[in-house]
Write a structure and sequence with these properties.
With about 220 residues, the protein is α+β, with helices and mostly antiparallel strands. It folds into two domains: about 130 residues, no CATH class; about 50 residues, no CATH class. Helix content is about 30%, strand content about 25%. Helix 3 packs across helix 4. The protein is elongated. The two termini are about 50 Å apart. About 10% of the residues are buried.
């Protein structure tokens, strides 16, 4: 049976620093977020274990997990497959969040649609050879002079188009929609790895159990 990611994360007890924690034995239990899951390198570094996926609309990792694996609890597999640590900055925004980001960054709809850069269109010679590829950021009045072997003469060509702030930001956001997902037949392998590597092992004075370690309790008095 699948388990949410934080079920795998063991706990850590640290000395309570709240005003109510007056006794030497007062501890607060939290999840040990330093104990982060990872896909082992022989899997993560081999594309044959993965398949391409395009995030659609407002899909979140749990939506993708349900779509691909039939279980939203495998959202952590989606995240680890793409080494995503910060959902806010590394996952694509849905339409509402994207529009809010644009307004926060640019201040008004007018500025959102202002020209940010000029980019080249593809320029080729008469034989089809690429002289200038598309997508290079250049000045608005960019031109190139080259010798065209097909017509045996030197010619000058220009070709640029404006790119708005909206187009620029949308490209970045849209690029985040292309991710890789671990193939379903390997799910049991990474789940077994998580169950094996996340528990604590005996050997330190902090060890309490395979799911709990305790920080050293030192009280400082003024």
């Amino acid at each position: 049976m699948s388990r949410p990611y934080f079920d795998y994360i063991p706990n850590f007890e640290y000395v309570s620093r709240t005003k109510d924690g007056q006794n030497i034995s007062d501890y607060t239990v939290v999840k040990n977020l330093f104990k982060r899951g990872n896909l082992r390198q022989d899997i993560f570094g081999d594309l044959t274990f993965f398949t391409k996926y395009k995030i659609v609309g407002d899909q979140r990792p749990d939506d993708v997990a349900y779509d691909v694996y039939g279980d939203q609890n495998y959202d952590w597999v989606v995240m680890l497959s793409n080494n995503i640590m910060n959902l806010e900055t590394e996952w694509p925004w849905g339409e509402e969040a994207f529009n809010k980001y644009l307004i926060d960054k640019y201040g008004s709809y007018e500025k959102i649609y202002e020209t940010k850069d000029y980019e080249t269109t593809k320029i080729t010679d008469s034989t089809g050879r690429t002289i200038v590829p598309a997508g290079l950021v250049v000045p608005q009045d960019f031109s190139v002079t080259f010798y065209d072997t097909g017509i045996q003469q030197t010619i000058t060509r220009s070709g640029t188009f404006p790119v708005s702030n909206y187009e620029y930001e949308n490209r970045i956001n849209d690029a985040k929609r292309n991710i890789f997902l671990l193939k379903g037949i390997y799910l049991s392998v990474v789940v077994d790895d998580m169950e094996e590597t996340m528990p604590y092992v005996p050997g330190s004075t902090q060890y309490v159990s395979d799911k709990l370690v305790r920080g050293e309790n030192i009280r400082l008095y003024s």
